[in-house]
Design a protein that fits this description.
elongated, PH-domain like, four-stranded mixed β-sheet, alpha+beta
Length: about 170
């Protein structure tokens, strides 16, 4: 007797230029760098007037510059990755490609082995974390777009995995 199985589903992340939140993030980072530059100029202009607070201002501006450099680096680092999720019955395959270094990483997980699944959906940063006794997989659903994000999460739930963070029907 033939068995009916669900077809293999494959999702590929959007190109970086079409990912959710790219334009607001770019605008925010540029405005933050402009504000930091203005703060440095104003701080330098007021050194003679407020000499007693100059060391504190230097530390604050240095901290802001380090944090902004980290945010900018992470934003640029995200642009170089491409992701694929392949769902084939109970097997989930997650691939990530580093397009700058030409490296790829592949992880397999059997859905019946999943101990816990957590779905995080902040505004434009949805992630799905699957935990097994052998390891974890963190799938950046935000890079696939809203439709694929919903399909992946609901497919995993349809295979009997209780996903924390998705409302039960």
């Amino acid at each position: 007797m033939p068995t009916i199985t669900q077809p293999r589903l494959k999702f590929v992340s959007r190109p970086y230029q079409r990912r959710v939140g790219l334009i607001p993030m770019a605008i925010g980072i540029v405005l933050a760098w402009i504000a930091l530059a203005l703060a440095v100029v104003l701080s330098l202009a007021s050194v003679k007037t407020f000499a007693w607070s100059s060391p504190l201002r230097v530390l604050i501006l240095l901290g802001a510059a380090v944090y902004l450099t980290y945010i900018t680096y992470q934003w640029i680092a995200d642009s170089r990755f491409r992701f694929e999720v392949e769902l084939d019955g109970d097997l989930l395959t997650f691939r990530s490609y580093d397009q700058w270094q030409r490296k790829s990483e592949e992880q397999h997980i059997f859905l019946p082995e999943v101990l816990a699944a957590e779905y995080f959906q902040p505004q434009d940063e949805a992630n799905l974390r699957l935990r097994t006794s052998k390891g974890n997989i963190n799938i950046p659903l935000w890079s696939f777009g809203p439709e694929a994000e919903t399909k992946i999460a609901h497919y995993i739930r349809s295979r009997g995995v209780d996903v924390i963070g998705i409302a039960q029907p």
